[in-house]
Predict the structure.
Amino acid sequence: MGALCKVVDTILLLAFVLISVVAPLFDSQTCLPESIYPELLVGMKNWYAGEYQDFLVVEKPHFFVALVWLEFVFQWPLALLNVYGMLASKPWFNTTSLVFGASLTTSMAAILGEILGSRKASDKLLMMYSPFLGFGVLALMRGLLHLAPQSGKAAPTIGKAPALARKKRA
């Protein structure tokens, strides 16, 4: 079980780093003016949209722009926190991973629903978006499984008495 957790943590760390870089440089071009970006980044976005036939990036439907704002304002800071929390072994990492996973999974369900329902998507485009649903589920499960109480372990103690049953002293 420990080796599986290390593999999941490695996959999630790579996903968090990827999102930490891609969100401000690439995805934010959907909701912010292109004039603030270097021509190289705008060219990369245009190449991607043409190569993968990403009609959401080209057409910019309102729901997609709103989801990109959600990613930029909410998920991106959580991805940065998750990179730090994972590398520094912070105890709050499980909670931020859970919140990030729930948000990413919900966003990806809406995006993939539109892609599949529109019948405009290429297989290449589906292969580009689908892993992010997997990353969301992994982050969600990582947060849930590590928040669950471990069976067979005693309640935490302080001194000789259980932490919750300890009497206050004046």
